[in-house]
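During the reporting period the student researcher (J.K.) took over the structure-prediction task from the postdoctoral fellow and processed the backlog of single-chain submissions. One of the processed entries is reproduced below for the supervisory committee.
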Amino acid sequence: MQPLDGTDTRLLSAMAKDPRGTVVALAQKLGLSRNTVQARMAQLEKKHAFLSFERRINPVALGYPLTAFITVHVQQQKLASLAQDLADIPEILEGFGLTGSADLLLRVVALDAEDLYRINGKILGCDGVERTDTALAMREMIPYRVQPLLGRRTKA
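J.K. obtained the following structure tokens:
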């Protein structure tokens, strides 16, 4: 991704503070023209600065109150095909390849403990999975955020 300039950072910060703000409202707040804001937003989208809207949908609202983090130990030669098999499990919200003792970290949601057990079984049933370790999230301590990073960039 190409680096962002000060105007981009100010625009992203304003959008983070008021995600429902219109282009006109953003332009007024930042002292820019509507056309400049629209052009900058289009460029930011091309630079992949925006994450998907899905990130803003709370799984609890969909009936999934449990969040768990599952580390997965895999057979390395099967990792590519395993990623697709795991992506086919709808309760897996995201997954990361790791360094260290585990190979993957999955963020999973479930209806309850019994459902989490079922989901873990589906993961263990995927070809290439050797074992899993599950940790139940008790409480979100720091919600997903980028505002502190944006603030740091605008001060630099």
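The committee noted the following: The chain is about 40% helix and 20% strand.
J.K. will present the remaining backlog at the next meeting.
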